[in-house]
UniProtKB/TrEMBL annotation:
UniProt protein name: sucrose synthase
Catalytic activity: an NDP-alpha-D-glucose + D-fructose = a ribonucleoside 5'-diphosphate + sucrose + H(+)
Gene3D superfamilies the record matches: 1.20.120.1230, 3.10.450.330, Glycogen Phosphorylase B (3.40.50.2000)
Sorted UniProt keywords: Glycosyltransferase, Transferase
Species in which this protein is naturally found: Gossypium raimondii
Family: Belongs to the glycosyltransferase 1 family. Plant sucrose synthase subfamily.
Organism taxonomic ancestry: Eukaryota, Viridiplantae, Streptophyta, Embryophyta, Tracheophyta
EC numbers on record: 2.4.1.13
Length: 283
């Protein structure tokens, strides 16, 4: 018994999450580590083991439910190609740290490719609320001018009382505005993920419900259902659903949505990828 416990077969059994028995086969879903799944078929008569694709494994689950009446024309969904070029972590220990990964990836690109900073400049210029400029005006046309303007503004702020009141955007006091500009200067000179995360986290983000009109125009009609993702997404979905008079649904992201089947309707062979940063945030 001790030899069995110390062997690879016991570790294999410990990683087994599901088992389907359809004589003469036992079909097994194994999760060797978080976010990673493998599927096997054991032939009890021939004592052979075959590796299965996701689609093949789901077919066995459907057969268990439908009693062998497999619909060869059932819709099969694979969302993997939509995310093929998007950066993502590979270690299971990174699950739940999607924002940190993206900040590291972005700051690394900023360090090696200064032109990657241009979208940040565009974002700061475009950040408005009710037509009011929140961060930068159109006179700041490039990174060089931004650095120069920030340096002058930072020096000016250092001479003001810390509690001097400002219009919200960069901050509502001289101290807060000064800290924001210092963070951005640090990012422009030597970007790092911690500074980038702190700066982005302090930018006031405003969602205007009046955007419901643009959404309806884009869809050429009012949707029947709106789905919110995570805290901010759920808040926006609640506001929009109330404004448009439609149903709101909240969706959780779990490993069980990576591959699943609704027998007789459709099967998903690549759904939620827990390594994808957009599904990889603890909130």
């Amino acid at each position: 018994m001790h030899k069995l416990r110390d062997g690879p077969f016991f570790k294999f059994l410990q990683s087994t999450q599901e088992a389907i028995v359809l004589p003469a086969f036992v079909v097994i879903a194994v999760r060797p580590r978080p976010g990673v799944w493998e599927y096997f078929r054991v032939n009890g008569y021939e004592l052979t083991v075959d590796h299965l694709s996701v689609s093949e494994y789901l077919r066995f689950k459907e057969e268990l439910v439908d009693g062998g009446c497999i619909d060869s024309y059932m819709v099969e969904l694979d969302f993997e190609p939509f995310n093929a070029t998007f950066p993502r972590p590979t270690c299971s220990s990174s699950i739940g740290n999607g924002v940190m990964f993206l900040n590291r990836h972005l700051s690394s690109n900023m360090f090696h490719k200064k032109e990657i900073l241009e979208p940040l400049l565009d974002f700061l210029r475009a950040h408005k609320h009710d037509g009011l400029v929140m961060m930068l005006n159109d006179r700041i046309q490039n990174i060089s001018k931004l650095q120069s303007a920030l340096s002058r503004a930072y020096e000016y702020l250092s001479k003001l009382p810390r509690d001097t009141i400002f219009r919200k955007g960069w901050g509502d006091t001289a101290q807060w505005v000064s800290e924001m500009m210092r963070l951005l200067l640090d990012i422009l000179h030597a970007p790092d993920p911690s500074t980038l995360a702190t700066f982005l986290g302090r930018i006031p983000m405003v969602f205007n419900v009046d955007a419901s009109n643009e959404i309806a125009a884009e869809l050429q009609g009012v949707p029947d259902l709106i789905i919110g993702n995570y805290n901010d997404g759920n808040l926006v979905a609640s506001l929009l659903s109330y404004k448009l008079g439609i149903t709101q649904n909240n969706v959780g992201q779990y490993e069980s949505h990576a591959a699943f089947t609704l027998p007789g309707q459709y099967r998903v062979v690549h759904g939620i990828d827990v390594f994808d940063p957009k599904f990889n945030i603890v909130s």
